[in-house]
Amino acid sequence: MPRMGRVVLPNYPHHVVQRGHNRQVVFVAAEDYQRYLVDLRELKDAFGVKVYAYCLMTNHVHLLLAPGDSVAVLGQLMKALAARATRYLNRLEGRSGTLWESRYKSSVVQTDAYLLACCRYIELNPVRARMVADAADYPWSSYRSRVDDVADSHWLDADPCFVGLGDTLTERRRRYEAFVREAVCADEIRLIREALQRGQLTGMNRFVDEVERVIGLRIEQRAQGRPRADSRK
């Protein structure tokens, strides 16, 4: 079988990262972040893509997105987001040229085992980068929308694993907050990071086997291990 290129699957979450061209800064002022989120909110509805988590860093973005039945909309959404942000910054700074890398990275995520782990990974980016001490202190991620009532933030989609955390929104928020505050093992971080960098699957071996059968392509790098059994409690 031929080796796998980028895999996009309908109705599955995808961990997506897009970086600034040559890692240049793409967000400077609060208005830059706000504008991107406005565009994300508008375009996700236009393309029918669910947004489960996001984190906007100074020179890149992390998104957890799920296309519907049409896989093409994922690439269309990312292209439209990049084009809008480029036009906005070029107009603001009186410049021209490319703002983003031409190709974003993506990894299909196994929903039951890794969806919440990927949300946590994304929302803890500013903590790992030592920009803030607590995820709740960073205003440009989805974390505060998940654990608190934040104005104009109810456009974020509720992923099935988050819904399964409890019978009420209050209970789900409390359990997710506790989940994020747990110590995260280095293996989990490495697995998510390497799957993204290689454009491969974030999941267990049985998930890899399942996707190989569906798409008819060989996936060489296989994830090992999984989040702890209590990670969704």
Automatic annotation (TrEMBL):
Q: Which residues form the Transposase IS200-like domain?
A: 9-125
Q: Which SMART domains match?
A: Y1_Tnp
**InterPro entries, from UniProt?**
Transposase_17, Transposase_17_sf
A single Gene Ontology biological process assigned to it is: DNA transposition
* Coiled coil (residue ranges): none
Q: Which GO terms describe its molecular function?
A: DNA binding; transposase activity
SUPFAM superfamilies assigned to the protein according to its UniProt record, in alphabetical order: Transposase IS200-like
Q: Which PANTHER family match?
A: TRANSPOSASE IS200-LIKE DOMAIN-CONTAINING PROTEIN, TRANSPOSASE, Y1_TNP DOMAIN-CONTAINING
What protein does this entry describe?
A: Putative transposase
Q: Which organism is it from?
A: Geopseudomonas sagittaria
